[in-house]
Model the fold of this input.
Amino acid sequence: MSQNELYPIFLKVSQLNVLIIGGGNVALEKLTFLLKSSPNAQVLVVSKDFDEKLIELTEEFNVSTVTAAYSKSALKNKQIVIAATNNEQVNKQIYLDAKSENILINVADTPKLCDFYLGGIVTKGNIKIAISTNGKSPTLAKRLRQFFEEVIPDNIDDLANNLNAFRKTIKGNFQEKVDTLNDLTKGIIEKK
Ligand SMILES: C[C@@]1(CC(=O)O)C2=NC(=C\c3[nH]c(c(CCC(=O)O)c3CC(=O)O)Cc3[nH]c(c(CC(=O)O)c3CCC(=O)O)/C=C3\N/C(=C\2)[C@@H](CCC(=O)O)[C@]3(C)CC(=O)O)/[C@H]1CCC(=O)O
Ligand SMILES: NC(=O)c1ccc[n+]([C@@H]2O[C@H](COP(=O)([O-])OP(=O)(O)OC[C@H]3O[C@@H](n4cnc5c(N)ncnc54)[C@H](O)[C@@H]3O)[C@@H](O)[C@H]2O)c1
Done:
């Protein structure tokens, strides 16, 4: 069985500069899911023109837009770039420019031109689960996301908050705290 070797990290996109190039369907999908997970993400969208729904989204969130064709200067001060134009040559150029500047790049829907993939994301309060199929099937990533959204109870966040509060009340050194917390929560994974 081949293994997914991607390493997931949870980025504070409210304190990073994200650039999306393109203002069509694909840009809309990527921006929708980025903002669903991270409503305070700092995003700039540069495109020759914009889908009406994308404009609505930018007005609702902290997203700026610039109407322009892509040029390398758009990469200035950006840490993460998503290329979503309908021009393969332009997407390839964005990829090469981003690599030359050491900026993380995702050419939407084009695995071979991605440093990272966007995933299916489930958020329940403080709890977040990110799902990747290693690029094998975005449809499956979506279905798994919907499945976990359904089966994970909304009040899982209460458990996280209660454990956080309880941790502060436990006396002892680090190892004693770890032991107490593990003891308390072992029922979660014990088979009945
Ligand atoms: C998870 C999600 C996140 C997001 O977009 O934020 C996401 N794609 C989503 C939906 C989706 N995208 C597409 C369909 C149509 C059905 C289909 O073709 O399967 C559907 C399903 C639908 O819309 O129903 C088209 C598509 N996408 C990619 C390819 C190329 C290829 O597969 O080779 C093609 C074919 C293009 C073509 O035909 O040319 C590639 C990628 N899409 C990824 C992410 C990365 C892999 C994630 C992973 O590891 O699983 C990766 C590799 C790169 C990237 O873009 O980051 C989001 C679901 C969000 C949610 O619902 O929660
Ligand atoms: N729509 C889909 O569901 C889908 C699925 C799989 C793959 N794709 C592919 O993904 C790409 C994007 O698709 P889409 O549906 O978003 O296209 P689209 O036509 O809706 O949007 C393309 C956007 O790119 C912008 N653009 C074009 N050239 C530009 C440039 N030089 N600088 C800045 N912006 C530029 C356009 O102004 C437009 O806003 C296409 O290559 C398409 O074949 C689309």
In short: The CA atoms of residues 45 and 65 lie 5 Å apart. The chain has a mean pLDDT of 96. Residues 156-188 form one domain.
